[in-house]
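Final report, closing paragraph on structural work. Over the funding period we assembled a curated collection of sequence-structure pairs, and we close with a single example.
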Amino acid sequence: MMQDKSLLLKLGGVVIGMALIYLLAAVVVPKVMVTLTKAAPTTKVSLNSSYFIGGKVLAVADGKEACVVNVFVLDETGKGISGRGVELTGVGEPQTEVSGADGLATFEVKSSKEGQFVLEASIEGTPLPRTVKVTFRN
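Its predicted structure, as stored:
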């Protein structure tokens, strides 16, 4: 009788040990491996993928009405990168914005001077290869 209890205790210990090993192998280790091997979000800006466009490129030259220009800061796969400094030059003083969660930086450009202006954008000091023209008329 005593040997039966001892055998049952040993058998129970083996079963619990095997269950623990199964739990580690089936649940814990895969979660740790996924966490360790998960790719970090990309933070490298691709100037060839990034671009800027004029949302509204014609405005009254009254210093109040604005042309709207959007700069998209993207990685090489086309995903937006947030938190990047973007500068826009070409009309008045340079303007700076920080790209949002989708990589978008929006500028409102105003002028009281009539004319057509070529705008240039740069991301953290590196100019984009394209330009946008905006026009202000009276």
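The mean pLDDT is 86. Residues 23 and 29 are 9 Å apart (CA to CA). We thank the funder for supporting this effort.
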